[in-house]
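Sequence only, no structure available. Ideas?
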Amino acid sequence: MSMEETMKNFMTQINSKMDTNNQLIKSEAEKINTNMNKKLQPLVKEVTEMKQKVHNLEKNIEINMSRINKIEKKRNLIIFGLEQEEGEDPTMLEEKLLQLFEEKLNIKVETFEIDFIKRFGKAKDKKPIVVGLTTWKRKISILTQAPKLKGTNIVINEDFPKDVIEIRKKLYPQMKTYREQNRKAILKYDKLYVIRYRIEKV
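Reply:
I predicted one. Tokens follow.
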């Protein structure tokens, strides 16, 4: 056998051994990956379940915060357009508000029926007023008489949570359209009522 043939045979044997070793390495690597996957699967499942629990917890917190916000605002009213005097303090504001209720709405509201009262917003004058009443019944009695303020610059509204305000903004154009069609349409909290039909919140 010539030297050239000997070298070829030698190289063939080396290549064959290398292929065999590569196959062995590949097989061992696959076994290692399989074993690792088996060990990691419970951990991956646990992490996935934990993420779902956290998501559910965050959702429940959001729902509960929304409920708390609604409860806190349930007895509140927002009043727009009431004159704001220089140096006005809470006592002056309360007296002015009680006078408004009595003279314009024919409702005698006692001081003890006011839980809190304050102005808010960035306007320089006539900032809106949020007033908390001690009972929901008193709030409704004021809202019922609020239409008597039509023609003045004063408006009394409910103190809606932020999410309800957004829903009402979307429903308002629909209400306006129905009214232009001479159909009775009323926005009540986060729903629009049209005669016998009700459009659920969007």
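The two ends are 90 Å apart (CA to CA).
Hope that gets you unstuck.
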